[in-house]
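In this supplementary section we document a worked example of the pipeline. Step one takes a protein sequence of length 89 as its only input; no multiple sequence alignment statistics are reported here. Step two produces a three-dimensional model, which step three serialises into structure tokens for compact storage. The input and output of this example are shown verbatim.
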Amino acid sequence: MAVEQHKSKGGNLFTDHPRSLGMTWAQHGAGAAKIGFELLAVGGACLIHAIVPGWFTETAGRKIVDLSEHIKKRRIGAKNPEQWSDYDI
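The serialised model returned by step three reads:
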């Protein structure tokens, strides 16, 4: 749905969002990939925790807090932080 909404606006699907945040496509991609891989790793830890509750008892919670702080710092350091929402990566 988001793709179709974007197409109807006539914008560039690859560069409009990164530019709105003051980033290049590559900068945005690298940051999003880093966060994505960290979330995948934490997801694995959660699945293991579901089987063995004594393992990874704080891993997901700590990582979520760390990622939230990381995103906030990226927004504050951006060229146009007022363009960033609380959840933009």
